[in-house]
Design goal:
The protein has six helices and five strands. It is of the alpha/beta class. The protein has a single domain, classed as 3-Layer(aba) Sandwich (Rossmann fold). Strands 2-3-1-4-5 form a five-stranded parallel β-sheet, with helices on both faces. The N and C termini lie far apart (37 Å). It comes from Bacillus mesophilum. GO terms for molecular function: ATP binding.
Amino acid sequence: MKQVGTLFFFCGKMGAGKSTKSKQLATEKQAVLLSEDEWLSSLYPNQIAAFDDYLKFSEQIKPLVKKHVQNILNVGTNVVMDFPANTQKHRKWFLDLAIEVNASHQLVFLNLNNEQCLRQIAQRRSEQPDRAAFDTEAVFIHVTKFFEAPEASEGLNILEFSGKE
């Protein structure tokens, strides 16, 4: 029986540390790291000015990303996806992606509260001034309205961090 890689993906509010944790995990697991932010900024430079733009372009790349990730998993390589799995619909997409190629999966849930996330967003703004226009409390509040914490009924292998680790 051929060895298939494991898919790792993330759930957490804006500013929870998904990108930071994904880089650490990719190193630990010797995995290919794929970043949605990198894909979107490369494919659609200067075209994402609002949250709706992000939603539109994020959906457009999904078929290509799915096939690419499945090909990597099929050769036995682990994949860490720095793509948000912040709604049940998004998590089902990741789960289906793994199931279709008989890959195992791990959802890393960064369960931080709003105050923790806003503190980290403020820090990120000062460290990465180019993100200041998007990394605001107003954007955080808007995006957080769509956030759905993962539930056991979704059939996911969940590893939860509360930010106190």
